Structures are given as C-alpha cells and as structure tokens.
UniProtKB/TrEMBL annotation:
The protein's name in its UniProt record: spermidine synthase
Alphabetized GO MF terms: spermidine synthase activity
E.C. numbers: 2.5.1.16
Record keywords: Polyamine biosynthesis, Transferase
Annotated gene: SPDE_1
Catalytic activities: S-adenosyl 3-(methylsulfanyl)propylamine + putrescine = S-methyl-5'-thioadenosine + spermidine + H(+)
Key word Transferase present: yes
Pfam families per UniProt: Spermine_synth
Length: 230
C-alpha cells in the first residue's frame, strides 16, 4: 500500500515468513513500470534455513531473492534496524509474526524509534497490526506507540486474509516528519499503473476501491483508534 505514495528508491523489508513472497505482490510489476523507481531492497530474515527450504520447495514463490537489487541479511530485524544509519531508507515494510516470543520487540516503542531514525524525512513504514476482531488491546498499544514516535501521518488499515484467524489482518502505515504523505490518496494511481503493467502476474485483488476501503473502520475500532492521541 505504501509504495503507491511516492517514488521510493531504497526499501528495507523485515520478514519473518521467509518465502520471498513480497516480490509476487510488487517487485514483478516493478520491472514493468509500477515501482520502477526502486533501486535497492534490503531483506532481513531471521532464519536462513527458511530461505533455503523456500527456494528448494517453493521456487515459484521464493523468486524475490534472485533479483540483483536485493540484499539478503540473515539475522535479527530489531538489531538490523537499530544499527541502520540514520536516514537510510525511504520505506520500511515489516512482515512480522504475532507479538509473541521473539517477534514481541517488533511491536514495541524502541523498535519503532529505530525505524523512524532509519527513515529519511517523509519516509514511510508499514507494519503488521493484528485483527480488530481479536486484538484491539494490542492495536491500542501499537497506535499509541506509533503516534508518539512518528510525527508525520499515522493510519490504521485492514484487509481480508481468509487463512488468518478472524479472516482479517491490519496494518499500521506511518510517516516521519517531512514531506506530507497521504496514505488514503496515493500519488501513483493504482489502477492506472495496473492498466499499464505488462507483468505476467497482474493484481487479482488490490485496486483503488480496495485501497480506499481499507481505511474504513467499524465504529468500535474507529472510536478506540481515534482516541489514542499523543
């Protein structure tokens, strides 16, 4: 979602699943022009064996690692972001597991502070933010932390994921202080880019209407999220 808001060049993806599946969503289209501005992608994956197994048994999915613009780092995403030079990245995408065990740190204020420091002014982050049906208590904490750390735009969005408990998953989309970012109205039109895309894997679900609807929250969730100001 965040990649339609600017012509980003340097991106970090902190990924726990390990499959390289992100490329199916936007890196293949990048080669046909959708995100052609992307020059460098750093992936931080916690388990190198997961990457190896994915390449061996899921080659059609784990295609992202083969791109020459990709730098794969095996290690802890929290430590990676903590050590990243200030103002390095245009965008950070965190595809984490639930906030249990080692992934807990990815939902806490020190990690968000590291992300904000590693982003340029007006840089953006998208992170997994749980289900409004099951985890409002967790979402409250995430929203509070993000609004304290990120001084640009802070938004909660959600979408359907049939295989996830409750059938939905949420995202926090935040920007650092600097050039304004309007996540709800992308500067790069989604449908126009898709129409011009010559990828063999066009989008099957995502379009401009889906993007707009992602920010429409049920009243109970909107009330809680809107109440979490700095």
């Amino acid at each position: 979602m965040i990649l339609f808001n600017y012509n980003y060049t340097r991106i970090i993806l902190s990924s726990f699943p390990g499959f390289g599946h992100w490329r199916r969503r936007w890196w293949c289209p990048a080669r046909s022009g959708r995100h052609s501005s992307v020059e460098q992608i750093d992936i931080c994956e916690i388990d190198g064996m997961v990457v190896d197994v994915s390449k061996k048994f899921f080659p059609d999915v784990a295609i992202g690692y083969d791109d020459p613009r990709v730098n794969l780092h095996i290690g802890d995403g929290v430590a990676f972001m903590k050590n990243a030079p200030e103002g390095t990245y245009d965008a950070v995408i965190v595809d984490s597991s639930d906030p249990i065990g080692p992934a807990q740190e990815l939902f806490e204020k020190p990690f968000f502070a590291s992300v904000a420091r590693a982003l340029r002014p007006g840089g953006v982050v998208c992170t997994q933010a749980e289900s409004i049906w099951l985890h409002m208590h967790i979402i409250e904490d995430i929203v509070t932390n993000c609004r304290q750390i990120f001084k640009g735009s802070v938004n909660y969005a959600w979408t359907t994921v049939p295989t996830y408990p409750s059938g939905v998953i949420g995202f926090m989309l935040c920007s650092t202080e600097g050039p304004a970012v309007d996540f709800k109205h992308p500067v790069n039109p989604i449908d126009a880019n898709e129409s011009a895309c010559k990828s063999s894997r066009p989008l099957k679900f995502y379009n401009s209407e889906i993007h707009a609807a992602a920010f429409c929250l049920p009243s109970f969730a909107k009330k809680v999220i809107d109440s979490k100001t700095t």
